[in-house]
Amino acid sequence: MEFVRVPKAKPGDKVAIVSPSFAAPGLAPEIHEQAMRRLTDITGLIPVEYPTTRRLGASAADRAADLNAAFADPEIRAVLSTIGGEDQITVVPHLDSRTVLCDPKPFLGYSDNTNILNWLWNLGIPGFYGGSTQVHLGPGPHVDPVHEQSLRAALLTGDRLEVADPGESEDFGCDWNDPRALNEFGEREPTEPWTWAGPKQTVTGRTWGGCAEVIQWMLTAGRFPTDPVVVRGGILIIETSEELLPAREFGWILRSLGERGLLGEVGAVVVARPPTSDFTTKLSSEERRHKRNEQRDVALSVLHTYNPRAVIVVGPPFGHTRPQWIVPYGGRMTVDGGARMLFADYS
To answer: Is the pTM of this model over 0.85?
Structure first.
């Protein structure tokens, strides 16, 4: 795969704020508006909303039209998704690849946004996994430092950063209908050390992957090259959503990736810390730890079966927990199994 180099924005530039899946700003506008203020405060960039950014129930074609308009506008220097959802797979067929290739710009999002990131990846355009404004910029008393640091690197500076453990984590925040959501985090707990496996080697490669549930939808829809050699030597980044996928089902998805030949080609795998509770499934700290350990053990077992040569780390928070690191998607990461360190190149 050949990838283009995408230029960075500068303070004062405009960035598009879109809702390619669920229009969360229409449900919780105060959270959204706080996110927009914080985005400008942190980056100096000017957010530009589109017709469906706040429109609940917008059609796939209308949402795609906003994306096409954002990618076509030379004044827009990056595109940020407000949140994920579950039907973005229906938006992708309406996207215009010619427009994107004429003026490549970074796209930031996670969860259901795996669809658009994979579409861009197939065009040779790198993006960034993470950074939904409604989840990581708007709620709480402030933006988490690791999120702010990686957001600035992705949009402005292009730094190479060590992806380190922030030391605390939450599975979900306050309900957006609760006024406390604007100035309080959810229930946070100390994190556990990451788990490392595989050879004590260093692997640097381009990333592909995303949300496990969405990956299986994309592969079922045939939205990935048939030859797994396209990920040879690369790094699989994979995480699970707030749907709280059981560990055995996560293992089945990984097994399918193995049978597809993808696991055998990659040089390293990074598995994110998973959410294990939500507003209705409230587990104790020990029960949550047990669920995380179950997923870790299944992942290590399947990955070792299909690629015992891969360097593996389980635990970095780039998925559906907070604080969240934004990480490259199609850009480069380094997994150092000897030093047990993880680095992301945001250039």
So the answer is: yes
